[in-house]
Amino acid sequence: MAVKLSNNATSTLSAALTASATSLTVQANDAPLFPSPQTGEWFPATLVNTTGAMEIVWVTGRNGATMTIRRGQEGTTAKDFPAGSKIDLRLTVGALLDLPKPKISDVVDLEKSLADKLDTKGGMLSGRLIIPDVDVDKRPIAEKVGDGVGESNLAVRGNGDGPAAMTFHRPGAYAIFFGLDTDNQLKVGGWSAGKISYTLWHAGNFKPDTKFDVSGGTIYGDTRIEGSLSLKYDFYARALSVSEELHAGGGSATFSKDGNIWGSVWSNWGNPNAYAAIENRIESRAIEWANNRVWSMQYRLVSVDVIRQGNTQAPSGACVTGMNINGTGNVAGYYIRYLQVFDPVRGWVGFYNA
């Protein structure tokens, strides 16, 4: 037999029921609340009289408000019930035991079916994931809003403080993140790339027409370089107007198209004509170099010789180092030595050919 059930089926007896009766009648208005068992079907009903005495009956048929019953079921005893006694469809042990039992094959099929399902807490797909077009919001991306309806078929959400990112992973080879970072910029990076991320440039945050091509081009307007500028080749300016200049040192030095330079690099800088300043600078450096050479010069005396009396002048490049006085007090001759100086380039040279 197959049990049939319904919700909230309750009524009272419209006529008294004796302990030997096999049918009962309920209130006509309540009759549709109860099932109508067919051949081989039934439902449990519990009778309660005014004193609280109870009996479980099995209803095997219903015709309108009249029900065919089996008395004293599931360990209860048939009793007399006066009109007005309560009758309810209550779930009983007998009804539970009569519920359809799953077959072993059904359990196996269920396990197989569950094995092919992805847990809502997360998991791994072994195949492709195809998301059909179930988006009822057909507005363009620029017109979508985060109202639930406006989100796309696939949504990647952060926790509010962190990024909203996806992982692209080639196991054993490389892995990287892609998504919306905490500064609200689309970026790619992290993991195998290290602690670095790269911003995806697009028309909203990058304007190619404002960038200078590495192969060369023209810069319009003032350009400021913080730090040094290294030029591999000669640089020049074309079609400079009178007011256009190249500045360095925070503007304290200026290079003009006419070749003049103003600034504080050279001593006495600031002259309208830079050539004089350059000349002064070169001259001062030359004097400094010459003085350094004189300061470090070395001298020596060589080639002792005697000049006879009557010679009143020492030879070129020589100096008198002494005199020879004869017995009469006259100068018999002069002692001379040639003077040499050390030149870092030529070595020791005499003053007569220095």
Q: Report how far apart the termini are.
A: 140 Å
Given helix and strand content, the structural type is mainly beta
Name the helix and strand elements from N-terminus to C-terminus, one letter apiece: EEEEEEEHHEEEEEEEHEEEE
Strand content: 25-35%
Low-pLDDT windows of residues: 233-242, 265-270
Mean pLDDT: 78
Number of helices: 3
How big is the Rg? 58 Å
| Helical coverage, percent range | 10-25%
Number of domains: 4
Global morphology: rod-shaped
**How many E strands?**
18
Main pleated-sheet profile: 7 strands, mixed
Characteristic terms for this protein:
seven-stranded mixed beta sheet, four-stranded antiparallel beta sheet, 3 helices, 11% helix, rod-shaped, mainly beta
Description:
The longest helix has 22 residues. Helix content is 11%, strand content 28%. The chain has 354 residues and is mainly beta. A hairpin with a 3-residue loop joins β8 and β9. Strands 1, 2, 3, 4, 5, 6 and 7 form a 7-stranded mixed sheet that branches. Strands 8-9-10-11 form a 4-stranded antiparallel sheet, with no helix packed on it. Strands 15, 16, 17 and 18 form a 4-stranded antiparallel sheet that branches. It folds into 4 domains: 96 residues; 47 residues, no CATH class; 73 residues, no CATH class; 52 residues.
